């Protein structure tokens, strides 16, 4: 920790993350409340806004960046995300496929 | 961070273990490993919820039960508490006064309690409309996931109370500082999970339910 950022720099990082998160949250709520009632593809937009907010909070709040000293955390988060996606997408794929084959409506 | 730097040789497990407890980088990394296992736990419950969307068995669904005004207020309370716990982290790392550190911890605690109060109010409103866990598979999945996050927030609040007590009894030593860093990580992590909850559980359920 040779180049420890100053108090103001540290604080600015959190405030930047907060403002970006607020904007992304407002955008997601606005999208669902305006076009969500008739248009199901709004969820694609919600997903993109959600992923953007995850990245913002990981960077500004949790310090998961590509910097050398945080590389281990990044590798851990990336691997856990891979496992998470296999479990969640695999479950949704299999159960959705099963529902279609059994002519259930989902 | 270098994990191997804290243990002299792989063979001497006893020494390495003792050293690992003192190295802050290893302690924080270990907490990350816990959070990622907790993330997988949440992921499985999310997967159950997604497969249960629409399985309302004739009972009330998302369109009858969800209150987006309250959801927005909860989201803002939790997001703001993530900022205030960050400000507390900054005041601690730059050795500002203990009073300002405790001020931001208490603000975070109050925002957390506010979030929980609104969430419990929401659950009681849902129950009054017939939305109880035993009504349908969909509602079982909903009440398996959202209160699981609420339970995490509750334990985070308890952790903050214990930490405030420890600041008074033990002082702001290395041990208490490391405990607070882990609490802050945990609190930020809960806000990450909440992004998934309002995007998938509330919006996804509402659009597809």
Automatic annotation (TrEMBL), chain A:
<dbReference type="GO" id="GO:0015078">
    <property type="term" value="F:proton transmembrane transporter activity"/>
</dbReference>
<keyword id="KW-0472">Membrane</keyword>
<keyword id="KW-0560">Oxidoreductase</keyword>
<keyword id="KW-0249">Electron transport</keyword>
<dbReference type="GO" id="GO:0009319">
    <property type="term" value="C:cytochrome o ubiquinol oxidase complex"/>
</dbReference>
<dbReference type="Pfam" id="PF03626">
    <property type="entry name" value="COX4_pro"/>
</dbReference>
<dbReference type="GO" id="GO:0015990">
    <property type="term" value="P:electron transport coupled proton transport"/>
</dbReference>
<feature type="transmembrane region" description="Helical">
    <location>
        <begin position="74"/>
        <end position="100"/>
    </location>
</feature>
<dbReference type="InterPro" id="IPR050968">
    <property type="entry name" value="Cytochrome_c_oxidase_bac_sub4"/>
</dbReference>
<dbReference type="InterPro" id="IPR005171">
    <property type="entry name" value="Cyt_c_oxidase_su4_prok"/>
</dbReference>
<dbReference type="InterPro" id="IPR014210">
    <property type="entry name" value="Cyt_o_ubiqinol_oxidase_su4"/>
</dbReference>
<keyword id="KW-0812">Transmembrane</keyword>
<keyword id="KW-1003">Cell membrane</keyword>
<keyword id="KW-1133">Transmembrane helix</keyword>
<dbReference type="GO" id="GO:0005886">
    <property type="term" value="C:plasma membrane"/>
</dbReference>
<dbReference type="GO" id="GO:0009486">
    <property type="term" value="F:cytochrome bo3 ubiquinol oxidase activity"/>
</dbReference>
<comment type="subunit">
    <text>Heterooctamer of two A chains, two B chains, two C chains and two D chains.</text>
</comment>
<keyword id="KW-0813">Transport</keyword>
<dbReference type="GO" id="GO:0019646">
    <property type="term" value="P:aerobic electron transport chain"/>
</dbReference>
<comment type="similarity">
    <text>Belongs to the cytochrome c oxidase bacterial subunit 4 family.</text>
</comment>
<protein>
    <recommendedName>
        <fullName>Cytochrome bo(3) ubiquinol oxidase subunit 4</fullName>
    </recommendedName>
</protein>
<feature type="transmembrane region" description="Helical">
    <location>
        <begin position="15"/>
        <end position="35"/>
    </location>
</feature>
UniProtKB/TrEMBL annotation, chain B:
<feature type="transmembrane region" description="Helical">
    <location>
        <begin position="26"/>
        <end position="51"/>
    </location>
</feature>
<feature type="transmembrane region" description="Helical">
    <location>
        <begin position="71"/>
        <end position="89"/>
    </location>
</feature>
<keyword id="KW-0472">Membrane</keyword>
<feature type="domain" description="Heme-copper oxidase subunit III family profile">
    <location>
        <begin position="29"/>
        <end position="206"/>
    </location>
</feature>
<keyword id="KW-1003">Cell membrane</keyword>
<dbReference type="GO" id="GO:0005886">
    <property type="term" value="C:plasma membrane"/>
</dbReference>
<dbReference type="GO" id="GO:0004129">
    <property type="term" value="F:cytochrome-c oxidase activity"/>
</dbReference>
<comment type="subunit">
    <text>Heterooctamer of two A chains, two B chains, two C chains and two D chains.</text>
</comment>
<comment type="similarity">
    <text>Belongs to the cytochrome c oxidase subunit 3 family.</text>
</comment>
<keyword id="KW-0812">Transmembrane</keyword>
<dbReference type="InterPro" id="IPR013833">
    <property type="entry name" value="Cyt_c_oxidase_su3_a-hlx"/>
</dbReference>
<dbReference type="InterPro" id="IPR000298">
    <property type="entry name" value="Cyt_c_oxidase-like_su3"/>
</dbReference>
<dbReference type="GO" id="GO:0019646">
    <property type="term" value="P:aerobic electron transport chain"/>
</dbReference>
<keyword id="KW-1133">Transmembrane helix</keyword>
<feature type="transmembrane region" description="Helical">
    <location>
        <begin position="101"/>
        <end position="121"/>
    </location>
</feature>
<feature type="transmembrane region" description="Helical">
    <location>
        <begin position="141"/>
        <end position="164"/>
    </location>
</feature>
<feature type="transmembrane region" description="Helical">
    <location>
        <begin position="185"/>
        <end position="208"/>
    </location>
</feature>
<protein>
    <recommendedName>
        <fullName>Cytochrome bo(3) ubiquinol oxidase subunit 3</fullName>
    </recommendedName>
</protein>
<comment type="function">
    <text>Cytochrome bo(3) ubiquinol terminal oxidase is the component of the aerobic respiratory chain of E.coli that predominates when cells are grown at high aeration. Has proton pump activity across the membrane in addition to electron transfer, pumping 2 protons/electron.</text>
</comment>
<dbReference type="InterPro" id="IPR024791">
    <property type="entry name" value="Cyt_c/ubiquinol_Oxase_su3"/>
</dbReference>
<dbReference type="InterPro" id="IPR035973">
    <property type="entry name" value="Cyt_c_oxidase_su3-like_sf"/>
</dbReference>
<dbReference type="Pfam" id="PF00510">
    <property type="entry name" value="COX3"/>
</dbReference>
């Amino acid at each position: 920790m040779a180049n420890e950022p100053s108090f103001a720099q540290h604080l600015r990082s959190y405030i930047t993350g907060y403002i970006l998160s607020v904007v992304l949250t407002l955008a997601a709520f606005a999208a669902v409340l305006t076009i969500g009632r008739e248009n199901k593809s709004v969820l694609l937009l919600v997903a993109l806004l959600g992923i953007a907010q995850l990245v913002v909070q990981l960077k500004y709040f949790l310090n998961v960046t590509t910097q050398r000293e945080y590389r281990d955390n990044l590798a851990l988060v990336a691997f856990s995300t891979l496992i998470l996606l296999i479990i969640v997408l695999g479950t949704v794929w299999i159960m959705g496929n099963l529902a279609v084959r059994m002519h259930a409506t989902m | 961070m270098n994990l191997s730097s804290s243990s002299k040789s792989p063979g001497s497990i006893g020494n390495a273990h003792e050293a690992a407890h003192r190295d802050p980088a290893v302690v924080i990394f270990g907490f990350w490993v816990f959070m990622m296992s907790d993330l997988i736990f949440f992921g499985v419950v999310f997967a159950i919820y997604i497969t249960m969307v629409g399985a309302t068995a004739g009972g009330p669904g998302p369109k009858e039960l969800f209150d987006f005004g309250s959801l927005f207020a909860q989201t803002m309370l939790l997001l703001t508490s993530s900022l205030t716990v960050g400000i507390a982290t900054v005041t601690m790392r730059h050795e500002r006064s203990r009073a300002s550190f405790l001020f931001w911890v208490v603000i975070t605690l109050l925002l957390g309690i506010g979030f929980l109060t609104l969430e419990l109010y929401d659950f009681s409103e849902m129950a009054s409309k017939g939305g109880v866990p035993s009504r349908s598979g969909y509602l079982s999945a909903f009440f398996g996931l959202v209160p699981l996050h609420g339970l995490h927030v509750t334990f985070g609040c308890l952790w903050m109370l214990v930490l405030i007590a420890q600041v008074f009894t033990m002082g702001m030593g290395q041990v208490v500082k490391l405990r607070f860093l882990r609490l802050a990580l945990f609190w930020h992590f809960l806000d990450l999970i909440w992004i998934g909850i309002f995007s998938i559980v509330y919006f996804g359920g509402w659009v597809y339910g």
